[in-house]
């Protein structure tokens, strides 16, 4: 945020390649809301004022507001304008919202909440995967693990392979509602991995517990798969907590 003579002003970064201006506006405002620079209940400047501040068309601004509204971050009402929604309405599992949360400095409680969610969902998913996986599922998991080992989680390629592995586990459950959480789980995995490397390298190699999980699913043992996934998440949280204290 930049503060000018007429109040608080949002600094809009240039749109990245492939990103339209309304997407850039939505990202900028989304980050500001997630960072607490616009509090729940706060009325945002009017369409004309904000469009002039940002140097964009009113159409681009309206499109940005539609994006934020769809994610539960803002709500517009006749005569009262657009205001920031109550936090309980925010779609915190939306991959964009997760990304915006981590582009500011997320609270430790929010990060721990994400790991709690993973502990609720992923061990049960691993148990189902052990019962229902196919050879194709196992092959996809194996290729993802090989890519993780080759590139390492400090690289975009390694993190993409990590996401692919967790997605393959959820796919193997053959549970459509559970699979709908895949993009959210993948985003949580990716952003927490980046977060714990923000000040120093990863404290240990996470491949052994990933290999153990793959072996448990391949062996068709739901209990062992559940425990392996739970241990994987526990160790990931421990790494993240070390990063919080750094």
Please describe the structure with a list of short key phrases separated by commas or semicolons.
246 residues, mainly alpha, Arc Repressor Mutant, subunit A, Four Helix Bundle (Hemerythrin (Met), subunit A), 2 domains, two-stranded antiparallel sheet, 63% helix, elongated, disordered N terminus
SSE layout and pairings?
Blueprint: E1 2-4, E2 7-9, H1 21-34, H2 47-54, H3 58-70, E3 74-77, E4 81-84, H4 95-103, H5 108-132, H6 135-151, H7 156-171, H8 176-179, H9 182-195, H10 207-218, H11 222-245
Antiparallel strand pairs: 1-2, 3-4
- Spell the H/E element sequence: EEHHHEEHHHHHHHH
The separation of the N and C termini measures 27 Å
User: Which term fits the overall shape?
Assistant: elongated
Helix content: 55-70%
| Counted beta strands | 4
Tally of domains: 2
Structural class: mainly alpha
Calculate the mean pLDDT score and round it. 88
Instruction: Enumerate the strands of the largest sheet in spatial order, edge to edge or round the barrel.
Output: 1-2
Q: Would you identify the CATH H-level superfamily of the largest domain?
A: GntR ligand-binding domain-like
Structure description:
The protein is mainly alpha-helical and 246 residues long. The protein has two domains: 2-89, Orthogonal Bundle (Arc Repressor Mutant, subunit A); 106-245, Up-down Bundle (Four Helix Bundle (Hemerythrin (Met), subunit A)). Helix content is 63%, strand content 6%. The protein has eleven helices and four strands, in the order E-E-H-H-H-E-E-H-H-H-H-H-H-H-H. It has a two-stranded antiparallel ribbon with strand order 1-2. Strands 3-4 form a two-stranded antiparallel sheet. Strand 3 (74-77) and strand 4 (81-84) form a beta hairpin. Mean pLDDT is 88; it is low at 1-10 and 14-18.
């Amino acid at each position: 945020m930049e503060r000018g003579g007429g109040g608080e002003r949002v600094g809009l970064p240039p749109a990245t390649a492939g990103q339209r201006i309304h997407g850039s506006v939505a990202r900028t405002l989304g980050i500001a809301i997630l960072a607490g620079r616009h509090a729940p209940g706060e009325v945002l400047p009017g369409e004309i004022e904000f469009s002039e501040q940002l140097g964009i068309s009113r159409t681009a601004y309206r499109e940005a507001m539609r994006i934020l509204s769809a994610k539960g971050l803002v709500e517009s009402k006749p005569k009262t304008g657009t205001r920031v929604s109550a936090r309980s309405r925010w779609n915190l599992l939306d991959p964009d919202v997760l990304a915006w949360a981590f582009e500011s400095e997320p609270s430790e409680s929010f990060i721990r909440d994400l790991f709690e969610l993973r502990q609720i969902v992923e061990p049960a998913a691993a148990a189902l995967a052990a019962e229902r996986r196919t050879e194709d599922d196992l092959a996809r998991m194996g290729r993802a693990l090989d890519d993780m080992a080759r590139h390492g989680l400090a690289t975009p390629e390694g993190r993409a392979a990590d996401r692919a592995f967790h997605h393959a586990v959820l796919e193997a459950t053959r549970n459509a509602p559970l699979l709908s959480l895949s993009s959210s789980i993948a985003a949580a995995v990716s952003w927490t991995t980046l977060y714990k490397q923000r000040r120093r390298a990863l404290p240990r190699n996470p491949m052994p517990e990933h290999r153990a999980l793959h072996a448990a699913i391949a062996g068709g043992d739901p209990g062992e798969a559940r425990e392996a996934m739970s241990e994987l998440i526990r160790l990931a949280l421990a790494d993240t907590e070390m990063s919080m204290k750094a």
